[in-house]
Amino acid sequence: MTRSLNPRLAFGCIVAIALSVAPAHAQTRTWVSGVGDDANPCSRTAPCKTFAGAISKTAAGGEISVLDPGGYGPVTINKALTINGEGTLTSIVMGGSGTAINVAAGASDQVILRNLSINGAGGGNDGIFISSGNVTIDKCFIYGFTSGFFGGLGINITASGSLNVDIRDTALSNNSCGVAAQTTSGTVTVSLDNVHITAAPVFGVVTLSSGVLMSVRNSYIKNAGTAVNTNSGTSTITLDHSELTNNSTAVNASAVGSTIRMTDVSMYDNSTGVAFAAGATVASANNNHSQGNTTSTAPNGTVSTF
Questions:
Q1: Mind listing the domains of the chain with CATH numbers?
Q2: What pLDDT does 25 receive?
């Protein structure tokens, strides 16, 4: 005689099977390794191989850490996240056009990129492209982005709303443009502290719309087309305790209504020291230093002291 399965037992079996095949929950910390596999759970003992493979297994607000030197591929970040390459050589090598790191996180999401080497290999479009989120770029080396907008951007901030970007202890070299920022609405605030930009034949730093407030402190820009430029809109760039050397133009407020403020800035051996368009302002705190520039115009504004 055939006996039917107890309904409660049948339900328990179904639940047990479902649990056994359910995907693992996203982890607060995941790991990548040059010898990892993206089919792994991205744990310390079973790491993934790429940032793109690890990001879906990392909880919002979590961190991807790096076990050993390697190239970990381009990635799009759409949530609060830290990518931390501290203690090892962590690189992304493009080898062609495209963007190495694309940040499109939520408006209140914090994204931290730390100790990364990002190599455009002489052809990448953007080292880091930021459209939304609040982003910190710390101890990174971004170089070799020479195709795309302006011929290639180390850091491209193109927003449709307000955001904050903090760049510190970072070097950008051999990109067509170092840092560019623009927004279609709201306010974009960009700060650079101890940032070195070299060999940027178009711009070192540039604002491309109204609504951009950029500060450059303790930084160095060398061998750029224009080291510091307000190119469009009523944007403002503030320079403090920084050096601009061997550029075609050190400072150019080229957009009507834009402002560049300078305090304790050294400008040496540039083809043009200071330039500005009618209706734009270059304001000086009268504690700046200038020598060896072929041509230069005196600033047309002052920075108030008190």
A1: 29-302 (2.160.20.10)
A2: 63
